[in-house]
Write a structure and sequence with these properties.
The protein has helices at residues 28-35, 54-65, 75-83, 101-135, 142-152, 157-180, 188-226, 229-235, 240-277, 282-292, 295-321, 327-359; strands at 7-10, 15-22, 43-52, 69-71. With 361 residues, it is an alpha/beta fold. Strands 1-2-3-4 form a four-stranded mixed sheet, with helices on one face.
């Protein structure tokens, strides 16, 4: 529909009629006119205005500033004109009611209980999915399981190798220097073997998996949830726990002991290089470790690593599935996953130490 030129016609000495389309394209001539004329105590009837935009509202505002009164302006124009009036008060948001300490504490406790309930429900869903998969092994995603084993295990070998050999070298060197003062540098092999196999090997591997695998699981599943891929799986009748979580969880449980065993061997090899520099042969170094470390120490370390792998994979998947909407929610879920994994690793390691003490290991 073509626009009609805005017109401002006088009816009396103090009264004008404004009509047509009051827009940027049709009101340019009026700007020159209002600047050349006195508008104090003038009345402008704007009932014939057909359409108006921001430029037209600015023209009416200029007329008001010059003393004119705008009458019978349509609702749309009046709304635009009011938005330009500086004397109108701004809309202020209603202040939030303050909460006292007891209310905030109750909210935190309630949120913690709800989060704990969701985590217990997630563990129950994992157990149910595992039971169903045991009765239908053909339906298990073996190809996805193999891919996750490659991502969790084989792709982590370079970083595990680097950190383990450096840790073995540093631990052996720092232990041998003070013990050499007493001529006891030979027993560095005993210290290194026992500490790596029972404690440091599983813990270092789990910490590396937390930063590498746990964060990857949380980010991957969180992105799938943001993109509504999880909802698509549910719509097509697939259980996200069996379809996504279970292959990653079993891969973490299986690969963590293997990576731990590899890290222990590499760390002991790094310590052997340091001991060779202190004049201790490889055969003596090996015999000292074999006499100090037994099968129970090795199995306890590997079982600890398996539980650590379960914690890393389970928490990473849970935080990914519990992520909110948006990129920031995925980042927050990844951060929460890594933090929670590290806390649970320390707690689980402490419980293992207590159990090992009471069992006499």
């Amino acid at each position: 529909m073509p626009l009609t030129e805005a017109q401002l016609r006088p009816t009396t000495a103090t009264h004008f009629e404004l009509g047509g389309d009051l827009t940027l394209a049709t009101s340019s001539a009026l700007w020159l006119r209002i600047q050349q004329q006195q508008w104090a105590e003038m009345e402008i009837d704007a009932s014939a205005v057909q359409s108006i935009d921001g430029a037209g509202a600015a023209l009416l505002f200029e007329l008001q500033q010059r003393g004119a009164r705008i009458l019978a302006l349509p609702a749309q124009g009046q709304r635009l004109l009011n938005a330009l009036s500086p004397e109108l008060p701004l809309l202020k948001p209603t202040p939030k009611s303050g909460q006292n300490l007891i209310t905030r504490l109750g909210s935190r406790v309630r949120a913690a209980n709800a989060n704990f309930y969701l985590q217990i429900s997630f563990l129950g869903a994992i157990c149910a999915a595992l039971w169903q998969s045991l009765h239908a092994l053909r339906r298990f995603r073996w190809r996805e399981f193999g891919l996750q084993c490659e991502l969790v295990g084989a792709n982590a070998v370079p970083i595990i190798t680097l950190i383990s050999i450096l840790f073995g070298v540093i631990l052996a060197f720092q232990s041998a220097i003070p013990m050499r003062q007493f001529g006891a540098e030979l027993y560095v092999a005993n210290l290194l073997g026992l500490s790596l196999i029972r404690e440091l090997g599983p813990l270092i591997t789990a910490i590396l998996l937390a930063g590498r695998t746990g964060a990857a699981f949380a980010a991957e599943l969180g992105t799938m949830k943001v993109n509504e891929e999880i909802n698509a799986l549910v719509t097509f009748g697939f259980d996200p726990i069996r379809f996504l979580v279970l292959p990653r969880l079993l891969a973490g449980v299986l690969m963590a002991p293997l990576l731990t065993l590899f890290a222990e061997v590499v760390g002991l090899f790094g310590g052997a290089l340091v001991m060779k520099g202190f004049g201790i042969p490889f055969a003596t170094y090996y015999s000292q470790i074999a006499g100090q470390v037994n099968l129970i120490d090795l199995l306890s370390g590997l079982s600890k690593a398996a539980i650590f792998g379960f914690i890393v994979a389970a928490v990473g998947c849970y935080r990914g599935l519990a992520a909110g909407n948006g990129a920031s929610a995925v980042g927050a879920a990844t951060t929460q996953a890594v933090v929670q994994i590290l806390v649970l690793l320390v707690v689980a390691d402490g419980l293992f130490a207590v159990v090992a003490y009471h069992m006499g290991w």
